[in-house]
Amino acid sequence: MDKLHYIESLVEKFLEGRTTNAEERELYEWFATADVPDKWSDLKAMFAWYAEGMPDKAAPAKPKPRMTIRRRWWVAAATAAAACAAVMVVLLPDSKSESAMRTYNIYEGSYIVEAGIRYDDIEVIEDDIEELFARAEAIELEANELIAWADTNF
Amino acid sequence: MKRLIFIVALLVAAAAECSAQERIEALLKRDMQSNKYGQGLRVAVKRDRETGEIIKRVTELTVIDDKALAKEFIEAFKAERDTADVWEEEANGKIYLVTAVWSDPKRIYRLDTNGSVVTVYEQIIYKEE
């Protein structure tokens, strides 16, 4: 198998969420240093993003509050109230989005298949993922009890 | 309830460890790629927030009304019994449940057969949280 075919098989494995950490590092390094074919330019960008630790590019910079001088106090109060409302409207969804991005990134690569249809939008399948991890945790606890039992008795 | 529990704790050579659970893995991978049994497949990956490296990967494949496949998975699990670090098996009528554990990295496999429903579960832990 030549290098491109090998990389292609690793990419397929990656998209199925089945690569090991070593294989992922190999992909990051190859896409960062090799002469990547044009058809894989999207993959190059994607692996660069992973290699950089999946930065939250969508997270916006927060605007700095501005001081305003008014001669009449009620104008100042009204302005402040309006500014607060505007800040609430503008910043709250972004803050939520920023928080969500941080959460979703840790599940990158997860997917589910139902009735032959694959879903990999983390926002859509997040509940399934968390339910599966909760079950995984319960099974791991049982496994740990078995290991402890075996260690004691053998 | 008839309950059979077998615990096997084995010291295995590094070479043997490399092939541990590979029959189950191969079967699981074949069915995941074929998409034939795609009515119930969930793959959950958890990554380190700082490095992006995988901490844990959990795969769950559910198959309904496929005796041939159920038999294949049962045979694959049984074939790996001697390579497992820990093995628990429970049989009760139509229920057949196996939990097998390998270490380094820690891998937990479970086969849950209940009548016509077969669930194969794989958990690989690359890094303890």
Helix and strand topology:
The complex is a heterodimer of chains A (about 150) and B (about 130).
Chain A: H1 3-15, H2 21-33, H3 41-51, H4 73-105, E1 111-114, E2 117-119, H5 122-153
Antiparallel strand pairs in A: 1-2
Chain B: H1 14-18, H2 22-34, E1 41-47, E2 54-64, H3 67-79, E3 86-92, E4 95-102, E5 106-114, E6 117-125
Antiparallel strand pairs in B: 1-2, 2-6, 3-4, 4-5, 5-6
How would you describe the overall organization of this protein?
The complex is a heterodimer of chains A (154) and B (129). Chain A has 5 helices and 2 strands, in the order H-H-H-H-E-E-H. Chain A has 154 residues and is mainly alpha-helical. Chain A has a two-stranded antiparallel ribbon with strand order 1-2. With 129 residues, chain B is an alpha+beta fold. Chain B contains 3 helices and 6 strands. Chain B has helices at 14-18, 22-34, 67-79, and strands spanning 41-47, 54-64, 86-92, 95-102, 106-114, 117-125. Chain B has a 6-stranded antiparallel sheet, covered by helices on one side. Chain B starts with 13 loop residues before the first helix and ends with a strand. The relative contact order of chain B is 0.24. Mean pLDDT of chain B is 80; it is low at 1-18. Classes of the chains: A mainly alpha (154), B alpha+beta (129).
Short summary of the structure?
Chain A is mostly helical.
Give the class of chain B from helix and strand content and strand pairing: alpha+beta
Number of helices of chain A: 5
Beta fraction of the residues of chain B? 35-45%
Largest sheet of chain B: 6 strands, antiparallel
- The overall average pLDDT of chain A, rounded, is 73
Largest sheet, spatial ordering of strands of chain B: 1-2-6-5-4-3
* Rough outline of chain A: extended
| Residue runs with pLDDT of under 50 for 5 or more positions of chain B | 1-18
